[in-house]
Amino acid sequence: MKNLHSHRWPGVPLALGAAVLFGASAPFSKLLLGTVDPWLLAGILYVGAGLGLAAIHFARQAIGLPRVEAPLRKADLPWLAAVVVIGGGVGPILLMFGLSLTSAASGSLLLNLEGLATMAIAWLVFRENVDRRLLLGAFAILAGAVLLTWNGQGLQLDTGALLIAGACLAWGIDNNLTRKLSSADPVQIAMIKGLVAGFVNLALAFGLGAALPSPGYVAAGAIVGFFGVGVSLVMFMLGLRHLGTARTGAYFSLAPFIGAALAIILLGEGISAQFAIAGALMALGLWLHLNERHDHEHAHEILEHDHAHTHDPHHGHDHDGPVSEPHSHWHRHAPMRHEHPHFPDLHHRHGHG
């Protein structure tokens, strides 16, 4: 049995869209940094993301839109608590204190560890399948990101660097644990994470004496946060659902290049040899990933879960009456054996010999 649609759709566009929005938030945030305290801006960005997604979440209910995504269930709450605490609390706190104790150049380089931590945990701990081509593509993307953020100064291995590395590890764990929630409503989850991370950063900023800027700057930061953090996080979570963590993390590592490219356009920064080489490395990595083909006969065990789906070859169950698609409900997968190209998505988390 063959899939009726490309296994790259919609996972790859979603992961790339997340990278585009997050990368675009960097140059827009830079325009605000001359007026807004950096820590306060981080809080405004995340609160803007959380409040914007909350408006969408409750507006859907208010106007009676049918529920397409699966709601959070009681069994999801421990995973949700873990990702909120680790990704929305521990990560930002470690980053803020780390940046205060090391140079900006060193901090920028170290932030690339998030992508490496995300992929390493996915491959080594959660045993996502990986081959030589995928590894080469991932490290080409990461090498391009490192080159892009290097300004000729050496890496300072001090307390601040260790704290930033710890923040990246926390976000790598967060990204992998978020996969456990990827079948649930991503707007609801991203809303909660955004609000927690936002208020944590606001508390840190005000505790250190930051002054609130004018309402116009607050509104601008909130809008950037809604798209660059909130919508980006929703797309990242949907990418996890279709691609698995390692591949979504690799595509998301393109964000620094996207941000740098927009900075050239918006801020008039020149194109350097460093930018061109980094772009070539990332383009190579992207090409290797887009041309990946993982295709073999595999067995699906009995599985019961709830997520948004259409009646594709993996969803052949019946309904009592007519339904619209996509829709979400608790359903059961019967055992099946077939062959088709696939990624480690919700239905292909099998082992490999």
General description of the model:
This protein is mainly α. It is built from twelve helices and four strands. The chain has helices at 11-32, 38-62, 77-101, 104-110, 113-124, 132-149, 159-178, 186-207, 215-243, 245-252, 255-267, 273-290; strands spanning 295-300, 303-309, 327-333, 336-341. Strands 1-4 form a two-stranded antiparallel sheet. A two-stranded antiparallel ribbon has the order 2-3. Helix 3 (77-101) runs parallel beside helix 8, helix 6 (132-149) packs parallel to helix 11 (255-267) and helix 8 (186-207) crosses helix 9 (215-243). The longest helix is centred in the middle third of the chain and has 29 residues, at 215-243. It is globular and about 60 Å long.
Average pLDDT score: 83
Q: Strand sequence of the main sheet, in spatial order?
A: 1-4
Tell me the radius of gyration.
Answer: 21 Å
Query: What's the helical proportion of residues?
Result: 55-70%
Taking the alpha carbons of the first and last residues, their distance comes to: 22 Å
Low confidence ranges: none
> Treating each run of at least 4 consecutive H or I residues as one helix, how many helices?
12
Structural category: mainly alpha
Major sheet: 2 strands, antiparallel
Number of strands: 4
Shape type: globular
Strand content: 5-15%
Element order, helices and strands?
HHHHHHHHHHHHEEEE
